[in-house]
Design goal:
By secondary structure, the chain is α/β, with parallel strands linked by helices. It has a single domain (about 1-15, about 45-145), classed as 3-Layer(aba) Sandwich (Rossmann fold). Helices cover about 25% and strands about 15% of the residues. It has helices at about 15-20, 50-60, 75-90, 135-145; strands spanning about 1-5, 60-65, 95-100, 110, 125-130. The chain has a five-stranded parallel sheet, with helices on one face. The protein is globular. Bound molecules: magnesium ion. Magnesium ion (MG) binds near residues 7, 9, 11 and 112.
Length: about 150
Amino acid sequence: MRILYVDMDGVIVDFIQSAKNSPDYERYINELDKIPDIFLNAPPMKQAIKSVNRIIDSRKYDVYIASTAPWGNIESLSHKRIWIEKYFGDKLKKRLILTHRKDFLIGDFLIDDRTANGAGEFKGELIHFGSNKFPDWNSVLKYLSIK
Ligand SMILES: [Mg+2]
């Protein structure tokens, strides 16, 4: 089975909306990833939960989450873990990888909205979420041949 990694912020987690929802938004305007509970309270991106479930249920891909937890927001590591269980139950249990070096990951696909933290140097294929080729989850599902 091909190994597929899914990034969190900007791919399945609506980080920007979470920041805007926070009463601390203005105060942290230059360091949004330090807003208290920003990762815990974040809403999912449109179509994201349904789409990742469809990929998992297809049994065509071995799915893992590959995310970077900001060093300056200590709670973000556990909040990301809580978020995954909140939206996916046990489906992604023990499949969360938090790293600043996504280029160290061995696998076939990485769905990521940025090239930072090694995503641009990933040895498999980067599915650049939000790009012209992959503007949304429907285009990704189509590319991965998920019915
Ligand atoms: Mg991202």
